Amino acid sequence: MYENKFHWARKIGFGLRPEDTIPDNIDVWNKEQLKISNVDLGLNGQGQWPDNFNFSLEKRFKRLHTYRTKEKKYDNDDISLDEKNRLRFAARDENIVHLYDVYKYWNNSIYGQDTFHQRLVHFWANHFTVGGSNNFRNYIIGDLIFNTIAENLDGSFSDLLQKVTLHPGMLDYLDNVHSAGENSKFTYTMRKEGKTAGLNDNLSRELLELHTVSTAKEYSEKDIKNTAMILAGWGLSVSDYIENFNEEKSYNNISKNITFKKFIYKPYNKNKAEPGSKVVLGKSFSSGPSSLYKLIKMLAEDDFTAKHLSRKLAIHFLGENVSKEEIQEIYKVWKASNGDLAEVHKVTLKVAQKTKIKKFLWPTTWMFQCIRLSGAQFISDKNRNNGFGKIQKNGLPKYEPLGILDEIGHNFWSSRQPDGYSEKKQDWVSTEHFDRRIRIASRIYAANPSISGEEIAEIYGFSDRTKMAISSAKTSKDKFIVALCSPELMEV
Amino acid sequence: MINRRHFLKVMPPALALSGYPVHGFTKDAVDGRIIIIMLQGGMDGLLAVPPIGDDDLFKQRKALVAANPLKLNPLFGIHPNFKNFSRLLKINEASIVHATSFPYTGRSHFEGQNISQIGLRKPFSVDTGWLGRAMDVAKITGKAMSLDAPLLIRGAMEFDNFYPASISNTSKPKNDLLNLIKNSHDEDMMKTFEKLNQSLMQGSDELRARDPLSLASKAGEAMRHNDGPRVAVLTIPEFDDHSSIGSTTGHHPDLFTLLDSVFGQLKKSLKETWKDSIVLTTTEFGRTVQENGSEGTDHGYGSVGLLAGGLIKQSSVVANWPGLSNKALFEKRDLYATIDYRSVCAACIEAAFGLDHGLIIDKVFQDKNIKRTYHHIFG
User: Fold this and answer.
1) Residue B194 is assigned to a structural domain of this protein
2) Does B192 reach chain A within 8 Å, measured CB to CB?
3) Is position B1 within any domain?
4) Which one, out of A17, A97, B287, B329, has a CA that is 20 to 30 A from the CA of A83?
5) Nearest Cα residue in chain A from B240
6) Under an 8 A CB cutoff, do A215 and B180 touch?
7) Strand B159-161 and strand B142-144: pairing?
8) Chain A residues lying within 8 Å of B108, measured CB to CB
9) A68 and A242 Cβ atoms separated by less than 8 Å
10) Cβ of A478 and B177 within 8 Å?
């Protein structure tokens, strides 16, 4: 039972800053946590997140388009290679998007008062993994995380699943943009011209295996193929489109009727769709775009999806040794509410409060908690004047917040597999991982924490053994590092 | 007729130019080294080692066959990007096993990757890897060239990692600090901090590069030492491409070049230890025989394994070739795997650690039906 508010805020969130207030009655705080405000705090927790660093999908595509257009121009210009590269990098940095997203990700985790919501965002961003790519997806992963996932965590799972599946990032990452029905007009035309075209089953396989029912459902290869046929037509070839994007015109090579708005919000091209009805898991679906909505609803409401997701939520918040009964409690609410995420998250919080098991935290969760609970300032290194606590003078963000995520092996903008990051302790225990923990702890120490290693040990009720290790350390820096790398802060 | 179901152990005549190297290896020697290169994402075995003598290949595939494969024997060729590997084949220090797979037909990356690491039939059924269990039986240590500790190498024996950090304004942790941190932890966490401490005491290491080539170089360097690790694991990710994967050039071929240079680098850095070494690739599954609609291939079954090292005495392509006609395919779409790749892994364990085949299939793979292929690969 989590009665200590400091432990509890770490179990389900990113912990408390020393100056954070929390009602003595945890239930009151829990109620606050279940409200979703979606107001992003400003950098270092001051004011609101600046609107010029909020990017809609349109803004993101425009920036990418501007960068690409300039890049192409420089390629054709009669200038030296050095000059070309200089201009290219400048164009890239001026139009960069994902570094601001990464700042927001750090900032929300470290300062956000809606700390349970922030943890949920990380959980669902991991469940719906879209791996990064510099040429396109890094421009829109932030949209998936902040504008699609974070904004839809109090509706039905079915809604969230539909929005994520049709997000341009997902459609590109799992190759659906390259898929066309075997009997579609597009495939017919392409083949007539001697080019290849046809189905690609990557998204359909992961939609079933990872996003919804899981392999426990024992669906067949035919179910996967028919799902791919229903998905065919969704997703437009992003890179081609971006290079030719012009707001005033439609893009003729793909379809005469596709406008920029349609490209983003209903990326469906019936010329690539597979005609005729398809059967998935025994249910028949007619042709046309609405069949995907129906299929997604069916998968979202499947009993195996409820089981799969209840288990994943329990493991994420409680720990990998979660009991069947604990999973069952979440599953029951999932079923009764038909996947109402507000209800499901509420019961997850309730079950987490009662559990006796511990969770070995993801490296980012641990890092954000350490910054937060020690009262450090973002992670700027004031003594050496090389931190990234502010967006730089010339208005361009630094790469280090992104680099650190890579270093600790937990980066939502990295290129990686669609099953997301592991929840198993053993996958995060290695000499190199622990080397990173110590290095990060030393960087946090340099970012002006407001409390010491000994004070952390007192507040968080460390064991005598850990306290002994802290008191044996010679410098206040070493004491701080021992405290941050303690078993008490790695697990909760 | 070559294209029939019949056990082929074909010497590549075009390549058998030199005499057989003699390494003084005997079955009693137990001082071998194993290096595994995990090819994550499912390598297309038909693109890497195309059966150019099988007419059905060209009926099934239109684009995804390299324009100028190097001919190994009447049936098989190899993608031209395998330059180092071809040279190793020529000097009888490499072999190929084709139409092979771990026993998994479910086509999920994640179940497949798990099975290729645990070496058992049921995914996610244990928390140790087949290599880790082999290390337990042989009582030897290993090294993972990655940030994390891959499941493959986990067992009771010790291993550590190598994957240098690059965080500005930080330095290697000091020994006294590590001792204090270690003292506050239990069990595996304590052991891991202890291991980190030991690796730091082994001297400073300022090499920061961590691309597969640099890691291969570090692996070889560590394994050369008498008391160094006897096992190493490298990963080459990103074989999981489904569109425009490339035939002569492209993404898959680029990965072949990388893999090929890792083989070359390992031979270079292992130096004299190369003669006691075996390097082998693993992948979770092969790809569909036919191309999909976007010049790629999707999840399949049978693939290919590439082996190199001084423990090999005579180069060969080992295959029980099932053919590529529609009828011969697994579920009408995939290359049939006629050799359980675990039997190849078992042969490598036998060659490198001198363990008895019966013991290996009992303790490591826990499956008595795994056949002994030692004589085909190392005989």
Assistant:
1) no
2) yes
3) no
4) A97
5) A417
6) no
7) parallel
8) 205, 209, 215
9) yes
10) yes
**Residues A163, A297: Cα–Cα separation, whole Å:** 12
Is A271 contained in some domain? yes
Interchain CB contact of A433 with B (< 8 Å)? yes
- Cβ–Cβ below 8 Å for A485 and B240: no
CATH code at B86?
3.40.720
**Structure confidence by residue, pLDDT tens digits, A388-414:** 556 666 778 888 899 999 999 999 999
Window 369-398 of A: residues touching B by CB (8 A cutoff) are 381, 384, 386
Residues in chain A: 492
**Which of A178, A199, A482 lies nearest to residue B184, judging by beta carbons?**
A482
Q: Could you tell me the residue range of the domain that residue B246 belongs to?
A: 7-164+207-377
Q: What is the pLDDT of residue B178?
A: 94
Question: How many structural domains does chain A have?
Answer: 1
Cβ distance B149 to A407 less than 8 Å, yes or no, reads: no
B114 touches chain A (CB under 8 A): no
The C-alpha atoms of residue A147 and residue A194 are separated, in whole angstroms, by: 41
Secondary element (H or E) of residue A293? helix A290-300
A341-354 vs A324-336: helix axis angle to the nearest 10?
160
Beta carbons of B169 and A205 less than 8 Å apart: no
B298 and A434 in contact by Cβ < 8 A? no
H or E element, residue B264:
helix B251-270
**Do B217 and B265 form a contact (C-beta atoms < 8 A)?**
yes
**Residue in B closest to A224 by C-alpha:** B107
Assess contact for B27 and B314: CB atoms under 8 A.
no
Q: Which residue of A has its CA nearest to B123?
A: A215
* Rg of chain A in Å (alpha carbons): 24
Give pLDDT tens digits for B271-302: 999 999 999 999 999 999 999 888 899 999 99
Q: Which residues of B39-71 are buried (b: 16+ CB within 10 A; e: fewer)?
A: bbbbbbbbbbbbbbbbebbeebbeebbbeebbb
**Per the structure, how many domains does chain B have?**
1
SS (H, E, C) B7-74: EEEECCHHHCCCCCCCCCCCCCCCCCEEEEEEECCCCCHHHHCCCCCCHHHHHHCCCCCCCCCEECCC
Q: In terms of Cα–Cα distance, which of B162, B187, B171, B321 is closest to A425?
A: B187
Q: What is the rounded CA–CA span in Å between residue B234 and residue B212?
A: 7
Angle of helix B251-270 versus helix B212-224 axis, rounded to 10: 20
Q: Cα–Cα distance between A48 and B345 in angstroms, integer?
A: 58
CB interface of B with A, residues 83-112, below 8 Å: 106-111
Q: Which of B106, B166, B199 sits opposite A407 (nearest CB)?
A: B166
For A104-129, what is each residue's pLDDT tens digit?
999 999 999 999 999 999 999 999 99
Domain region containing A236: 174-300
> With contacts defined as CB-CB under 8 Å, which chain B residues touch A431?
160-161, 192, 195-196, 199
Instruction: Note the helical H segments in A337-430.
Output: 341-354, 363-373, 400-407
Please judge whether B298 and A442 are an interchain contact, meaning their C-beta atoms are less than 8 angstroms apart: no
B188 touches chain A (CB under 8 A): yes
In this structure, the strands spanning B7-10 and B317-320 are antiparallel
Residue type (1 letter), B36: I
A42 DSSP 8-state letter: P
Q: Which of B338, B163, B328, B311 is nearest to B233 (CA)?
A: B163
Which amino acid is located at A112 in the chain? G
Taking alpha carbons only, the member of B306, B303, B315, B305 closest to residue B376 is B315
Q: Minimal Cα distance from B171: which residue of A? A: A439
Q: What confidence tier does B203 reach under pLDDT thresholds 50, 70, 90?
A: low
B182 is a domain residue: no
pLDDT above 70 covers what percent of chain B? 90
Domain annotation covers residue A439: no
Q: Helix, strand or coil for residue A375? A: coil
| A413-439 confidence digits (pLDDT tens) | 998 899 999 999 999 999 999 999 999
- Closest A-chain CA to B188: A429
